[in-house]
Amino acid sequence: MQATQTISEGLKREFKVVVPAAELEDKLSSQLSGLKDKVRINGFRPGKVPLSHLRRLYGRSVMVDVVQNTVNEANQQIVSDNQFRLAMEPKVSLPEAREDIEAVMEAKADLAYTVALEVLPSFELADLSSVEVTREVAEVSDAELDEALTRMAKQNRSFTARDEGAAAEAGDRVTIDFVGKIDGEPFEGGTGQDIPVEIGSGSFIPGFEEQLIGAKAGDERVVKATFPDDYNAAQLAGKAAEFDVTVKAIEVPGELKIDDDLGKAFGMENLEALRNAVRDRVGVDFTAQSRRKLKRQLLDQLDKLYTFDLPPTLVQQEFDGVWQGVVGEMTRAKRSFADEGTTEEEATAEYRRISERRVRLGLVLAEIGDKADIKVNDDEITRALVERARQFPGQEKMVWEFYQKNPEALAEVRAPIFEEKVVDHLLTQAKVTDKPVSKEELFTDEEEKEGAKA
């Protein structure tokens, strides 16, 4: 086998590979000889079938394997000899002319093909001792606990029917049927039956619930309301609608009690136990948000420390995935780039920058993890799989088997675990300063802060 490099541009490499016909013939003969003791052919004793006869029967199918294995071995040798770290699987271009292919399959001509490679960039890991990040820390206040317990008490309280003929008041639960219309025409998703509406809960669009005050069971009303400009269904955002409403029942809420009985209703021994459990649950949410913001800071600074060429195919694959999601979401929401205050060209450039950042940071984190010998063990993978399987009640076994049988899917489970362990490692090298903040500040993104300043 002879491999000659023909292209070396950035991270792209290309080789012309020539495997002599004699080498193919030797491999074919060796493979056919191995078949002698395995095949049973009428008229011949086991192991006595002439090679010429085996060649007529199996030569072409065996040569397909010979060519495939030869190409794989040649590519592996190129990678090994040049100490390449591949970004993608090699792209092989075999002869296309029929006569050339036939000659190779009969071992009468050399196998000549090209193989294109993309290699990973080489870069030195930066010193992180100068990196400074701020970890926002928020305490769970008594007021927040009281608010959470009040919400739970509201969810747990009972409702009883109002006296016959009584009118609905704020706080009552009204059961209704409705048909929504825009410009006199019903719209998709605008119809409901036996829908409970708690007046004042804010669960419906602004202005809807208040118009039910004073209604009685059996009443029919036309409720007029306007969808918010940022409504999640873009086709309805900002539009005025009318709802033909039929009131079917009116219920008055029971007394709001925050006591030991509330704790017991949620499986706790008493109110104090429930309070502690809520504090822990809210604390987990606070810690997770603090971690997200800290990680974003770290990755932002990490991104600034590295500049190197990126494998173009990796970037394109990342962009294709991101762009498909963006376009799909806009299609479902029936929105255009103009609705988003941009153009397709500007959006394309922005999402390509995002894709390049993701690939760059992915390569940096992988290199850091490799140098630090960070591993993801089987127990960590198992815990992640169990958690993922729990998201599909009744299908746990099927989910488990899917990941066990699909290495690529299993790699998707491993990747975020590995990334978090690398981030933990990086945080031991950077200077981390804790900053006490309020709940509101903790859950405000940096983009929102910048927008508020502007």
UniProtKB/TrEMBL annotation:
Listed GO CC annotations: cytoplasm
InterPro entries, sorted: PPIase_dom_sf, PPIase_FKBP_dom, Trig_fac, Trigger_fac_C, Trigger_fac_C_sf, Trigger_fac_ribosome-bd_bac, Trigger_fac_ribosome-bd_sf, Trigger_fact/SurA_dom_sf
Membrane-spanning segments: none
SUPFAM superfamilies, alphabetized: FKBP-like, Triger factor/SurA peptide-binding domain-like, Trigger factor ribosome-binding domain
PANTHER family according to UniProt: TRIGGER FACTOR CHAPERONE AND PEPTIDYL-PROLYL CIS/TRANS ISOMERASE (PTHR30560), TRIGGER FACTOR-LIKE PROTEIN TIG, CHLOROPLASTIC (PTHR30560:SF3)
Free-text function comment from the UniProt entry: Involved in protein export. Acts as a chaperone by maintaining the newly synthesized protein in an open conformation. Functions as a peptidyl-prolyl cis-trans isomerase.
Name of this protein: Trigger factor
Organism: Chelatococcus reniformis
Gene, per the UniProt record: tig
